[in-house]
Amino acid sequence: MGEATETYHQAIDPADAENPAVAYLKSRALRWASVQFFRLGYVGNPLPGHEVYAGKLCIPYITRSGVVSLRFRTLPDPNPDYNPDDPGSPEWLPVDGPKYLSVAGDLPRLFNTCDLDRREPFVCIAEGEFDAMTAHQAGFPAVAVPGVNGWSAWWARCFRGYETVYILCDNDDKGQGAAFGEKIAAQIGNSRIVMMPEGHDVNSYVVAEGFAALIEKIGVEL
Question: What is the number of H-type helices and E-type strands within the chain?
Fold first, then answer.
């Protein structure tokens, strides 16, 4: 998995406008430094056994022990009718089929657990890798649960000792984000639910309003 991570990461060149991953990552407000930090990659030439992931974004799960898992995100096609001056005009077309694929047989894991080593008095838990990457880029230590139903109860032990655990909840999924936050908060006594504004998750809120808005929303002085 370490070899695959580096192979696919080297396939992303920020100067390559023809690479579909480059435009997509820019649209998600991820700076090149973040792409490097998280070793995000593009499966342009899949390694043996990875043919099913061709054309997808590679998101490695990196720990102090190295890469322990890989997730692959389907890249959407750009909307030919996109109008940046129209808030209701989507930049990307809906994905046909599952957005994410995991390595066969893999179990759900927390993403970006290296941020737990920062030993700050607070930490954020987000729903999904892009939300955690966005919060991290804003300056927060942040981990992600891989999907609204991906939380495992024993993970609560990872958050003992923090003064505050901010649970960053989506508000664009008909109440699933609120249920996600309430489920985790019931198991972590020092937690606070932070709902994103209606129609947004962490990443889309930053794309629309900027990083300062997210910092103000969470309410922590960095």
Answer: 7, 8
Coil, helix or strand for 178?
A: helix
Give strand pairing partners of 145. Answer: 127
Reading the block at residue 74, the tokens are 């389907």
CA distances to 77, 135, 139, 211, 216 from 221, rounded to whole Å, are 38, 14, 10, 13, 8
The answer to whether the beta carbons of residues 53 and 46 sit under 8 Å apart is yes
Is the Cα torsion angle 38, 43, 47, 52 positive or negative in sign? positive
58-112 pLDDT, tens digit per residue, is 999 999 999 999 999 999 988 888 888 887 788 888 888 889 998 888 888 999 9
**Greatest extent of the chain over all pairs of C-alpha atoms, in Å:** 50
Task: With beta carbons less than 8 A apart as the criterion, state whether 113 and 63 touch.
Answer: yes
pLDDT in tens, 100-159: 998 888 888 999 999 999 989 999 999 999 999 999 999 999 999 988 788 999 999 999
Do 77 and 92 meet the contact criterion of CB atoms below 8 Å apart?
yes
CA distance 210 to 203: 10
* Residues composing the chain: 222
Which residue, among 193, 195, 191, has the nearest Cα to 158 in the 3D structure?
191
Q: What is the pTM of this model?
A: 0.93
